[in-house]
Recover the amino acids of this structure.
């Protein structure tokens, strides 16, 4: 059976792990593995890159120690090495995943500059159906 080289826990280096997680495609892979249970084949990830580029990203994550890859038949199965990373760099993955979730939320949030109806400073008066502009004082009719 073919095996792939992985760094041991003691061989993991902070610079290498951070460099691996700095790329948005690789960070997406790590986040998906964190959110999922069990192993996932490379082909199950819908990445916005070619197959050869995806292979490069998976290899970079493996060589940094972020993921473990093992052959299962003809597929390569991926697992996040969360226990090893948490032991070596406590809190690092949690911080990266929290930051990634914030960026995802900001990317899907309505843009108040282009959609004034999404403004939290406006609400509809239930009685009249008019839009009200909220200020520090009492609500005033909006134009």
């Amino acid at each position: 059976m073919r095996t792939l080289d992985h760094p041991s826990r003691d061989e993991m280096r902070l610079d290498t792990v951070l460099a691996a997680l700095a790329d948005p495609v690789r960070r997406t892979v790590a986040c998906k593995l964190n959110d999922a249970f069990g192993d996932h084949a490379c082909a199950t990830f819908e990445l916005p890159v070619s197959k050869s580029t995806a292979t490069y990203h998976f290899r970079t994550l493996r060589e940094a120690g972020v993921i473990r890859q093992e052959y299962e038949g003809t597929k390569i199965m991926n697992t996040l090495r969360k226990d090893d990373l948490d032991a070596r760099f406590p809190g690092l993955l949690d911080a990266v995943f929290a930051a990634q979730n914030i960026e995802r939320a900001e990317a899907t949030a309505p843009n108040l500059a282009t959609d004034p109806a999404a403004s939290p400073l406006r609400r509809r008066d239930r009685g009249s159906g008019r839009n009200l502009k909220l200020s520090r004082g009492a609500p005033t009719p909006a134009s």
